[in-house]
């Protein structure tokens, strides 16, 4: 049978084809909108990444960077690892924890006060007086394994100035948190408590370094913060984290930060 152009059959065929193409184009546009380019994502989140440092004016005008932090809530809260700010300040001299914001050799310096800590989950929340751009936090649901992630921080401190670096990878596993010790003498009470009641953390297939402690981990799909970098796996001494990194990094889920904030009446 011959089908004439302009017949109901051909009109239906071309109409269906055009509709399918429009659906395909719309789907592609929606996918592109959901996953922003990595350069665009970095540009968006960089103003919210800060260096965590200790400032001792009597010893040096330059702050000593300890790790990384990020801005949340109303812009006046800084989140980092507890171990980054666990050092006791010397009461005999002027000494403060500070956040360094901006980029380059002359970052802005913000004095910080510690307002909430969770040593078990290795989280600390600090406050500053001047508001900075805040990041969006994910909800409490754990993210699926295989999800693409990235994190930004200061892996080698700020020797040449404040220049944040970004690394990317995937969530390799969701695993109980443990602190392995080579012998019983190295086990602390905190370690024993964790072994009794382990909590889940993300294992990342990505390379972090000591200065990345406190770095926010982002879901690559929407730039929401899903976790906080807190340690890397090393097979030898501490120096091996720099010279021979394992590429295995661990991060605390954001739900543990939200619990700490809620328990201290902090709105995130």
UniProtKB/TrEMBL annotation:
Highest taxon listed in the record's lineage: Bacteria
InterPro entries listed in its UniProt record: Peptidase_S1_PA (IPR009003), Peptidase_S1_PA_chymotrypsin (IPR043504)
SUPFAM superfamilies membership: Trypsin-like serine proteases (SSF50494)
Xref: Pfam families: Trypsin_2
PANTHER family from the UniProt entry: PROTEASE DO-LIKE 5, CHLOROPLASTIC, SERINE ENDOPROTEASE DEGS
Protein name as annotated: Peptidase S1/S6
């Amino acid at each position: 049978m011959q089908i004439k152009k302009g017949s109901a059959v051909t009109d239906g065929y071309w109409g269906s084809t055009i509709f399918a193409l429009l659906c395909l184009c719309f789907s592609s546009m929606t996918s592109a909108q959901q996953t922003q380019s990595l350069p665009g994502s970095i540009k968006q989140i960089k103003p919210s990444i800060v260096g965590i440092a200790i400032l001792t004016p009597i010893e040096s005008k330059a702050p000593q960077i300890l790790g990384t932090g990020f801005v949340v809530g109303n812009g006046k809260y800084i989140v980092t690892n507890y171990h980054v700010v666990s050092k006791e300040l010397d009461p005999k001299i002027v000494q403060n924890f500070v956040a360094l914001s901006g980029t380059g050799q002359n970052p802005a310096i913000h004095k910080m006060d510690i307002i909430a800590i969770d040593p078990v989950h290795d989280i600390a929340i600090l406050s500053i007086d001047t508001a900075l751009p805040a990041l969006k936090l994910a909800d409490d649901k754990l993210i699926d394994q295989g999800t693409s992630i990235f994190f930004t921080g200061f892996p080698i401190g700020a020797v040449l100035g404040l220049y944040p670096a970004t690394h990317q990878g995937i969530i390799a596993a969701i695993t109980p948190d443990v602190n392995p010790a080579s012998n019983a003498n190295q086990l602390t009470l905190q370690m024993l408590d964790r072994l009794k009641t382990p909590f889940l953390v993300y294992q990342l297939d990505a390379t972090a370094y000591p200065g990345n402690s406190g770095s926010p981990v982002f879901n690559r799909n929407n730039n929401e913060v899903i976790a906080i970098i807190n340690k890397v796996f090393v097979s030898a001494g501490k120096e091996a984290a720099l010279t021979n990194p394992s590429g295995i990094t661990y991060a605390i889920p954001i739900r543990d930060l939200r619990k700490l904030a809620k328990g201290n009446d902090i709105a995130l």
